[in-house]
Design brief:
Layout: E1 5-6, E2 18-19, E3 24-25, E4 31-32, H1 34-39, H2 44-47, H3 52-71, E5 77-81, E6 84-89, E7 94-96, E8 111-112, E9 116-123, E10 126-132, E11 139-140, E12 165-175, E13 182-192, H4 197-218, H5 230-245, H6 251-261
Antiparallel strand pairs: 1-2, 3-4, 5-6, 6-7, 7-8, 9-10, 9-12, 10-11, 12-13
Length: 263
């Protein structure tokens, strides 16, 4: 036991021995015991600046959070996000997102609606959808309509046979919580052949829409319609102009797509 614990550097909160390896550390590289470390739930950047007094205050907050989960938090809406879910208590304007990044899954931090400032949905190639508090509606980038497949996506096995294309998604929440300014969660995956990948990609976004609708609603944003910003619309139209010039689509198809993009 002594090989893996250090009694000469006791936990600043409870006085127990701290781990010699992989210890959670607060300001001044001060280690925390395993029991206290498991209770902490905050961004790493904030943890590295945490004083002893702030650690004690945080652990009290974590106890209050657990009590609130049991006695106050009554979610009436839940939306799946990969291996976890977004749980919303509309009456009390509270929500949780139980992920390992936030610490103990049995005691996920409760966030207030007012603490949610923005969300972003990304895939491996960049931003797909975003919404900020105060926006008129969520914004979609061109990738949401015409997902890009790069050469690096076209994987092949040792015999040269093309494998399915896999695309991971991540959800980013930007917060004004005392302990969390950003939370990142795995949002899911699309695995399909290149021929059906665009359809599967679109199907994933449609399936994920209850999550983004709910997040937008918590910020007071109308999510019944989506728009693309002016630069993205211009880029999208240019792509279809190139298809028209190359004879891949007809002028009628180009005009129909242009009208759709311009609303």
């Amino acid at each position: 036991m002594g090989l893996f614990s250090n009694k000469k550097k006791p936990c600043p909160n409870c006085g127990k021995a701290t781990p010699r390896l992989f210890a959670v550390k607060i300001a001044d590289e001060m280690p925390v015991c395993s029991d206290c470390g498991k209770k902490i739930s905050m961004a790493e950047t904030k943890l590295a600046q945490l004083s002893v007094e702030e650690l004690k205050e945080h652990l009290v907050w974590r106890e209050e959070n657990a009590k609130q989960l049991k006695e106050v938090f009554r979610p009436n809406f839940s939306a799946d996000i990969a291996w976890t879910s977004l749980n919303i208590d509309e009456a009390n304007q509270l929500f949780t997102l139980p992920i390992h990044e936030c610490g103990d899954l049995k005691n996920p931090p409760i966030f207030k609606y007012e603490e949610l400032n923005a969300y972003e949905l990304h895939d491996k190639h960049g931003l797909i959808e975003f919404c900020n508090r105060g926006d008129a509606t969520p914004q979609l980038t061109s990738a949401a309509h015409t997902p890009v497949i790069l050469d690096s996506d076209r994987r092949r096995n040792s015999k040269g046979r093309q494998l399915d294309i896999s695309r991971d998604f991540k959800l980013h929440l930007f917060l004004s919580n005392p302990y969390w300014d950003k939370v990142e969660a795995n949002a899911g995956n699309v695995l399909a052949s290149e021929y059906v990948f665009p359809e599967e990609y679109t199907a994933f976004l449609e399936k994920f829409s209850p999550v983004t609708f709910a997040l937008a609603a918590m910020m007071g944003v109308d999510a019944t319609t989506y728009v693309m910003d002016a630069d993205t619309i211009a880029e999208e139209i240019k792509k279809f102009e190139e298809l028209l010039d190359g004879g891949i689509i007809t002028e009628e198809e180009f005009n129909a797509k242009k009208e759709q993009l311009l609303g």
